[in-house]
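Researcher: I'd like a candidate sequence for this fold, 99 residues long. If you have to choose between options at a position, lean toward the conservative one.
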């Protein structure tokens, strides 16, 4: 591996790092017993990943670029929609905070 192949490697992973930061914030919220907000934030992190994958070129998307752009955006967006929908619609159960 040449030195020039590694130029900008840290900056290339910045979009992934931002998405993972939002995921960590969501996990912290879940651990703090705010599971609805936490899972919604994890869903929003996936929406952010879909957006970044859609607008960034492959070489700047870093670890967000797993498959083709269309497949990545579809899967990130689909999983985000499912997680957000489930987190906002589940009622009852051991984690219900509505009383």
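Model: Candidate sequence:
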């Amino acid at each position: 591996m040449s030195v020039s192949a590694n130029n900008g490697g840290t900056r290339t992973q910045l979009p992934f790092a931002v998405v993972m930061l939002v995921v960590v914030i969501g996990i912290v919220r879940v651990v703090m017993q705010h599971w609805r907000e936490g899972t919604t934030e994890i869903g929003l992190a996936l929406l952010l990943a879909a957006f970044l994958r859609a607008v960034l070129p492959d070489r700047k998307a870093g670890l967000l670029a797993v498959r083709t752009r269309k497949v990545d955006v579809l899967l990130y967006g689909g999983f985000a929609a499912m997680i957000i929908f489930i987190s906002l619609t589940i009622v009852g159960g051991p984690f219900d905070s509505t009383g």
